[in-house]
């Protein structure tokens, strides 16, 4: 059974001429990285917000671990929130500037993780938990006492990754996770994410406008345009002759 399956997902904003996301469907297997690529404004981030239930889809199905969550709210949704986490594009905006790194890392556990059977990041003590998370994303333990503004952009994004994986979700949505980083930091973060997927058994939906990054990370790729999935293929079939014309246009600037 797929760890995440989506069918017919549609989201239209008030006053818009067409849906931001239209009839999107896909399945994500356990341990897989599924890439979603498309230009800015094509609906990728709207899809991510719907999957996270930050926004409600107008219609469609979202099954997480076999449970339908598209219409759940409040206490009925809460048990499922631990199973899907997100890493946003801008780590500065994602971290509370008034909280030390340690407190930011603890927050998901305190909100959603208590009582969960964690394997890799079992909570034995506050300090041990934070130390293991920082080690997992290759950051020194002394950063725990600092504030976000005292870290580099790459370090801040590693903290948001640590925060996402700390309650051991089944799925991590990566919404342009390297877009705000310099080229060197981008490569290092992609390597880190790939290693974490393997070592922790995570499943990723990797969303980006960068086809090269998506191709590097993913086993399968979907191409979105105008809110619709217009092409899908195994990563090793990127250059096949039957690719959609729009995909070929993206390849030309690869």
TrEMBL record:
Keywords, sorted A to Z: ATP-binding, Nucleotide-binding, Transport
GO MF terms held by the record: ATP binding; ATP hydrolysis activity
Pfam families linked: ABC_tran
Example GO BP: transmembrane transport
Tree of life domain: Bacteria
Keyword check for Acyltransferase: no
Residue intervals of the ABC transporter domain: 4-251
Magnesium as UniProt keyword: no
SUPFAM superfamilies linked to this entry: P-loop containing nucleoside triphosphate hydrolases
Residues annotated as transmembrane: none
Family designation: Belongs to the ABC transporter superfamily.
Descriptive protein name: ABC transporter ATP-binding protein
